[in-house]
Amino acid sequence: MLDARHITKAYFEGKKELQVLKGIDLKVDRGEFVSIVGPSGAGKSTLLHILGGLDNPSEGEVYLDDFCLSALSDAQKAMIRNTRFGFVFQFYHLLREFSALENVMMPAFLKKGRKDDQQIRNKARGLLDFLGLSGRLSHKPSELSGGEQQRVALARALINDPEILFCDEPTGNLDSETGRHIRDMLYGLNREKKTTVVVVTHSRELAKGSHRILNIFDGKIISVETEAAC
Q1: Rounded to 10 degrees, what is the CA torsion of 142, 162, 5, 60?
Q2: Which of helix, strand or coil describes residue 187?
Q3: According to the model, what pLDDT value does residue 227 have?
Q4: What residues are paired with 88 via a beta bridge?
Q5: What is the DSSP string of 36-59?
Q6: Out of 28, 128, 162, 202, which could bridge 133 as a Cys pair, Cβ 3.0 to 4.6 Å?
Q7: Which residues have CB under 8 Å from 197's CB, separation 6+?
Q8: What per-residue string of b and e applies to 100-138 under the rule 16 or more CB within 10 Å gives b?
Q9: What is this structure's pTM?
Q10: Is the predicted pLDDT of residue 168 greater than 90, yes or no?
């Protein structure tokens, strides 16, 4: 489904080149739950952003089925991100002036326009209800706890039925109990809806139970743990 081939990424600080990713090869199969773990600065988030089409590699290619992401225009990549991918980040990136319900509806409006307003509204309500937020629909982000904001962000990521859900430290700002709740929701989505999930995390608790855990260090995948070993 997702095939990254010899991915490198370099940045420049003045004249100094900083190699963040160093020749990574990675395949993610449909319906798989993959966790990418490693210390800060190892290249985890950079790899996730490249896999999700948010950034381009310096060298190498990422294929989604038969499409090479870097060969697509910005508009084509934006369409794929909105229709086939979902994203959840450590910082929730909710629109402060809009309610929880309105935040969840936004990606669907970008995909379908306002002609299906009631259908989109009903689906957004259903997602928030599924995530335990039926009583918080009209609340703005400033009126929600961190865990509630993360669940709104998760509902927003799911509104367009993504084939792949990319999560960058989704429990990083949450207390342990709320983090376990988000973890259980992600694994439930993978089991029940067969959503492919790719997670970057420092948390072994979150990674535990993945089909594969990729250990990344200094821009390279140094080991892979399979489900039986996790």
Answers
A1: -60
A2: helix
A3: 72
A4: 167
A5: EE--TTSSHHHHHHHHTTSS--SE
A6: 128
A7: 32, 33, 34, 164, 165, 167, 186, 189, 190
A8: bbbbbbbbbeeeeeeeeeeebbebbbebbebbebeebbe
A9: 0.91
A10: yes
Give me the amino acid identity at 203.
Answer: S
Determine contact, residues 108/124, Cβ cutoff 8 Å: yes
d(CA 188, CA 186): 5
Distance CA 157, CA 155 (A): 5
The per-residue pLDDT for range 94-136, each reduced to its tens digit, is 999 999 999 999 999 988 776 678 999 999 999 999 888 999 9
Nearest CA to 204 out of 195, 213, 196 is that of 213
Contact assessment for residue 35 and residue 216, using Cβ atoms and an 8 Å cutoff: no
d(CA 222, CA 218): 9
Q: What's the pLDDT at 66?
A: 85
Q: Phi and psi dihedrals of 165, rounded to 5?
A: -110, 120
Alpha helices in 84-224 (DSSP H): 100-112, 117-130, 146-158, 176-193, 204-207
At 130 the pLDDT is 86
* pLDDT per residue as tens digits for the range 174-208: 888 888 888 998 999 999 989 999 999 988 889 99
Return the CATH superfamily for domain 2-84+162-229.
P-loop containing nucleotide triphosphate hydrolases (3.40.50.300)
